[in-house]
Amino acid sequence: MFRTAQETEECLPNKGLSPKIAHLVAERARLTVAITSDAVDREEEIPLGATKIGGYPDLPPSMAWPIRPPYPKGEDVREEHLKSAGNIPKISWMSEEERRNHRSEALELADGAMREAPLGFIAQIDLAAVAAVADLGADFPKEGRLLLFYDVKQQPWGFRLGDEVRARLIFDETPVSALMRKSAPEDIAETRMDPLRCNLAAALICESPYSRTFDNFEDNDGDLLLEWSDDLELPNGSHRVGGYPTQIQNDMALECVLLTRGIDLSHGSELVFDSDVERERQSWVFLVQIASDGNNAMMWGDSGMLYLWIHRDDLKMRRFVKARLILQCP
């Protein structure tokens, strides 16, 4: 991890990167607000409206718990779960009891995709506390809270058209004195994760070596950048607001472009990467990253992360309902 852009530019050539590439990496570095978490004995230890992960959300009394409708492509989701239910051979490493449980859970998920269901609460971000730590740009709100709800049971990746119903990002500016801590509906009470107190700190983050920005590097520079990618990451900042995400798989801004153009990515998709696509890609802003967290057994896929992106026009207009959630894991 580097503390300043100048330090980045000075150190990377010592690791074999060309001065030109070191300058590009340093030039594109951005401020982020890194979030570290700690377990608490009681959720009451976390003040109303404060940044936290897990537990119960702090909402105005009149706000209903977010409910997702049946998945628009629920038949496809159901078919995938049914296939999974019948895809455990007897030679599997699973015990017979584990195979029965897997089938039962898959069948439950298959039916659940066809019905409406409450979303699980994931995290809330105190935007005033974020702004007090770092300036993330004029478009980022300086007051209020972001509250993330997600279909914890289904855990869609976000590749399929219609998957946007799987998550809800709420922007709330209710005064803290008027908030109340709301319990989850009974039918998702078991998905509640223990509350984690959060600490915020400003840090410099570099763009992922997997980004399209570095696609045309010469092999040596590209390989070296990957080799030193850990130095570009934050050692204790897997959760974060703004800056760059920890990219594990594909370019997420590009995925957002394709999905908004009506291209389903559940079976892969190719697109000519022209100047029009690049302009649109640059219009997508990374908002928040919530990682798997051992402090409360939060797990996304196989030790993956949830990422929130929004088009800059929607960010400026505070249309957070249009934010897109993507899940990636190793």
UniProtKB/TrEMBL annotation:
It comes from the Bacteria. It holds the Pfam family DUF1963. Gene3D superfamilies: YwqG-like. This is DUF1963 domain-containing protein. It comes from Microvirga makkahensis.
